[in-house]
Amino acid sequence: MNYFTAYFAYWEAGFLTGQARGNRVLIHAVAGGVGTAAVQIGKIMGAEMYGTSSSNDKLARVKQLGLQHAINYREHDYEDAIKELTGSEGVDAVFEMLGGEHTAKSIRCLRDFGKVIQYGTAAGKQPQLDLRALYAKAASVQGLWLTYLSTKHDLMNEAWKQLSRWIAEGKLNPVIGEVFQAGEAAKAYELLLARKNFGKVVLKIA
User: Could you tell me the CATH superfamily of domain 2-148?
Assistant: First the structure.
């Protein structure tokens, strides 16, 4: 599911047109399941990728997957970092799943005509919008809900065909950080809450 979410984020951002090489994308929670999938897909397309995480160790591991610009948000405000790294130009897209103030901050990270792809609210707060920043940059915020998109069979089939081709070519490799038995569900949840996971956390039922 991570790869479908990442694929559709790029699709909604307009990166799958064949002209995405050099386009800039900021990926929040870049060391998570969707984040690592987005880095692998972005590498295939030649995107210039910026990613946020709370750990320098996790950022170093994601850079091995192809991330070019790593931002530790505990050490640097990512909005300031994007401004510095892009010469105040901003990025073409932000993959945002935090919500709250981070939606507004992500909007301010965009360049002209950029797009925030909102696919979650992990912070548990309603996304905030900076309308003046949207107006000033002719930017937009677009939602992504995989449960809804999964009902669009033609769209899902096309995504599956493309992802399958990349898998067959050895370009996509799921990042499994930890594997827990069913009885260790609480331990797995604690790992996620502590933000110590890298890649996908798997819970084995049998």
Answer: NAD(P)-binding Rossmann-like Domain (3.40.50.720)
Cβ(120)–Cβ(97) below 8 Å? yes
Element (H, E) at 52: strand 48-53
pTM equals 0.89
Residues in contact with 14: Cβ distance below 8 Å, sequence separation at least 6, in sequence order: 20, 93, 115
State pLDDT tens for residues 12-42.
Answer: 999 998 777 889 999 999 999 999 999 999 9
Determine if residue 55 is left, alpha or beta; phi over 0 gives left, psi from -120 to 50 gives alpha, anything else beta.
beta
Residue by residue, what is the 3-state secondary structure of 175-206?
CEEEEEEHHHHHHHHHHHHCCCCCEEEEEECC
Helix axes 56-63, 33-45, angle to 10 degrees: 30
pLDDT tens per residue across span 112-131: 999 999 999 988 899 999 99
Domain residue ranges of the chain, discontinuous segments joined by +:
2-148, 175-206
Best CA proximity match to 143, nearest among 49, 5, 4, 3: 5
Amino acid, single-letter form, for residue 167: I
